[in-house]
Design brief:
The chain is an alpha+beta fold. The protein has one domain (7-124): Cytidine Deaminase, domain 2 (3-Layer(aba) Sandwich), CATH 3.40.140. The protein has four helices and five strands. It has helices at 7-14, 58-68, 91-100, 121-124; strands at 30-36, 41-45, 74-81, 105-110, 116-120. It has a five-stranded mixed sheet, with helices on both faces. A hairpin with a 5-residue loop joins strand 4 (105-110) and strand 5 (116-120). Tetrahydrodeoxyuridine binds at residues 23, 26, 28, 30, 46, 48, 55, 57-59, 79, 87, 89-90, 93.
Length: 133
């Protein structure tokens, strides 16, 4: 049985976390919600650092929460931002999501414009680096 993906519902799960985003340097706030094959939802926000390169994106925060909870398969990832337009996951996040599901649905939403863009990770990241498990 495959899990039903509720696009608006998943965006709604990420939204309340946007205000928890720690982004004093870029002032770009991002929250992510990961829906798994079991129907669970894990959230994350971007966490910046005075040593800029240590910043962790919202998507990787949410994927880490999923793994910590013992789950391994994201079917959809909602990325919500306060930027003017929806933003796609950065290259590092694409690689990290692809580790667990190269076909995950990526839902990008801007709370400012209300715009939503939906793409498959395969389209955003057609050649992930994946080792045989
Ligand atoms: N950021 C994310 O959290 N996710 C993305 O997909 C792109 C960028 C964050 C990282 C940093 O805190 C800020 O946005 C600006 O790059």
């Amino acid at each position: 049985m495959s899990v039903n993906i509720n696009i608006e519902g998943l965006i709604g799960k990420a939204k309340p976390f946007l205000s928890n985003s720690y982004a004093p340097y870029s002032n770009i706030h991002v929250a992510a919600a990961v829906l798994t094959d079991k129907g669970s939802i894990y959230t994350g926000v971007n966490v910046e650092n005075a040593s800029y390169g240590l910043t962790i994106c919202a998507e990787r925060s949410a994927i880490s929460a999923m793994v910590a909870a013992g789950e391994r398969k994201p079917v959809a990832v909602a990325v919500v931002t306060d930027m003017d337009n929806p933003i796609p996951p950065c290259g590092a996040c694409r690689q990290v999501i692809a580790e667990f599901n190269p076909k995950a649905l990526i839902i990008m939403h801007s709370v400012k414009s209300g715009k939503t863009i939906v793409k498959n990770l395969e389209e955003l990241f057609p050649q992930p680096f994946i080792l045989e498990k």
